[in-house]
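ok so for the tutorial part 2 we go from a plain amino acid sequence to predicted structure tokens. step 1 is just haveing the sequence, like this:
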Amino acid sequence: MSRIQCPRCLRPHSHCLCPLIPSLDSRTRVLLLQHPNEVNHALNTARL
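step 2 — the prediction. this is what the tokens look like for a chain of 48 residues:
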């Protein structure tokens, strides 16, 4: 039996912090770069 996961961060609901993330309006564009070797790394800091 699998645990219920958050659809946004894919962490178990008991460890999900998504409701605490503020929503901010900004005109600044952000570009995130990730090395190809990090895509499936088990200890990613955050899901991109």
